[in-house]
Amino acid sequence: MSAATATITDLKGDGRIPLRGHLRHTGALIRRNLLWIRQDPESMFDAVLFPVVFTLLFVYVFGGSIGQSLGGGQEAYVQYVVPGLMAMMGMNMAQGVGTGFNQDFNTGVMDRFRSLPIGRGSVLFAKIAVELARMLFATVVLMIVGVLVGFDITNWAGLLASVGLSAVFGTALMWIFLTLGVVMKNAQSVQAMGFLVLMPLQFGSSIFAPTASMPGWLQNFTDYNPLSSLADAARGLMVGGPAAHDVWVTLGWSVALTAVMAPVAIHKFRTKA
Amino acid sequence: MTRIDDNPSGARSAVTVRGLVKHYGETKALDGVDLEVREGTVMGVLGPNGAGKTTLVRILSTLIQPDAGQATVAGYDVVRQPRQLRRVIGLTGQYASVDEKLPGWENLYMIGRLLDLPRKEARARADELLERFSLTEAARRPAATYSGGMRRRLDLAASMIGRPAVLYLDEPTTGLDPRTRNEVWDEVKRMVGDGVTVLLTTQYMEEAEQLAGELTVVDRGKVIANGAIEELKAKVGGRTLRIRPLDPLQLRPLATHLDELGLTGLAATSVDAERGAVLIPILSDEQLTAVVGAVTARGITLSSITTELPSLDEVFLSLTGHRASAPQDAVPADDRQEVTV
């Protein structure tokens, strides 16, 4: 038992964890989440399949008819929907973090983490880091499929910027899923709830189709739907056109969501009995 | 071993609980609990389901906050110094809190890193503890494939990574079969041998008897008794007579005959056929004399007659007025300590 002192060298002071400690803990937890993927490679399926299925489905099922309203055909719709799907990437990430966190709560392992001298944020940051990596992977798949069905990557910087914007918005949305994850009983409910909330938001937006032909009341909704702003911003950044306004609106929503929901999520997390 | 209790007196209090209260709405999970665990000792907290045992452990692990009262562990206050406190405790929950998707080794390595062990040391510690808890062969398999006992051992190993000064064992053998339970007990005894202070919650009387030196009996959020286990038994005052007839065929008739005496002991007269004995609870020396008189009158030859201290089950019954709701299977009567008259 020669190494006995290692874990209690830090007994003095107020017990605050130095930045290096936070990084070390987050690293150890990232390793844990990566090992999950290695242990269960199927968990990557959705990351791979989502962009493939959605791209093919929307381009080939709706592409022709919606493309006409865009003044082109299927090719015009490809340019329209691929940036829209880019906007979806961040949402998937948010949902991944929420579900994963909930699973931890339901096994005793979160109790173990919470009784260890680590910053409670480390568990979250590790999860975000891994889900971001998964999102980037899915984005690469999306771009490959997109190019195969005819998407023109004209602006690489804009592409990267839209990935970033989607991730920023996703991180803000994540707080909602985290709150759900702590409040709700199991991962399935979080997923179901997420689906119920996200579905109308996603379809009631400019992600999949232009809003011009929608009835007036719906347009009022889609105009204020942050997902429309995010999708339009991605579109502007990736294929050209005005983007600045939508970028700012999206960032504004992200800040507002975080400001409201992060304290709620953290409070729920802290007081979870 | 450099530990927080490296002091010559050895009599310091490792856990001190004063007037601890935790309510959940109308439910008083803890309703003013006092508790003291001296360094290097094992304190058993005995009580049925819903007595407040887990709430106590969760407060002492900084997982939840008390509504009122004070608690310190190794000198750190649970409310004001949670970060320091977490460095000196180990927790093994009621449900094995290991990451089932990770292999055993990775579980231990991860916790080593979370406890700030350097990589090399975290690796060595994981190897060492897997070896010690006989899990080396299963080191690379996901914990989900482990048996109940293996998982519990991994959980114990995980709580030992940081060489805690105080270890909480929250119902460590609930749901385990008797053989596995004995394995876990052996491991706990070894840890205690290393000088760890242990707070053990249990609903098994026999578990407390096996592992703990001192006992706090809780019921509905309140401490109803505490002290050394032997003291508690003496406090209750009841004894059980174990009477062995020379001729095993006399066993049943003897039991029937003694039953007819109508003694109001703590439990009914019973037959331990395996050991060829009749067990009859008594409350006083007069009752002892009455039993012996009845046996003599009947002309039954005895090979032995002994008195036993009451089991903890009986202790609980007499302290609370109701039986512990715990499963009774963990108390084989033959393991009781015998005291010859």
Automatic annotation (TrEMBL), chain A:
The chain crosses the membrane at residues 44-63, 132-151, 157-183, 195-218, 247-266. GO terms for cellular component: ATP-binding cassette (ABC) transporter complex. InterPro entries: ABC2_TM, ABC2_TM_bact-type, ABC_2_transport, Nod_factor_ABC_transporter. Residues 42-272 form the ABC transmembrane type-2 domain. It holds the Pfam family ABC2_membrane. Coiled coil: none annotated. Keywords: Antibiotic resistance, Cell membrane, Membrane, Transmembrane, Transmembrane helix, Transport. Belongs to the ABC-2 integral membrane protein family. This is Transport permease protein. The lineage of its organism: Bacteria, Bacillati, Actinomycetota, Actinomycetes, Kitasatosporales.
Automatic annotation (TrEMBL), chain B:
GO terms for cellular component: plasma membrane. It is a peripheral membrane protein. InterPro entries: AAA+_ATPase, ABC_transporter-like_ATP-bd, ABC_transporter-like_CS, ABC_transporter_ATP-binding, DrrA, P-loop_NTPase. It holds the Pfam family ABC_tran. GO terms for molecular function: ABC-type xenobiotic transporter activity; ATP binding; ATP hydrolysis activity. PROSITE patterns: ABC_TRANSPORTER_1 (PS00211), ABC_TRANSPORTER_2 (PS50893). One of its GO terms (biological process) is response to antibiotic. Its EC number is 7.6.2.2. Residues 15-245 form the ABC transporter domain. Keywords: Antibiotic resistance, ATP-binding, Cell membrane, Membrane, Nucleotide-binding, Translocase, Transport. Transmembrane segments: none annotated. It comes from the Bacteria. The keyword Membrane applies. It is found in: Cell membrane. Belongs to the ABC transporter superfamily. Drug exporter-1 (DrugE1) (TC 3.A.1.105) family. This is ABC-type xenobiotic transporter. It comes from Streptomyces resistomycificus.
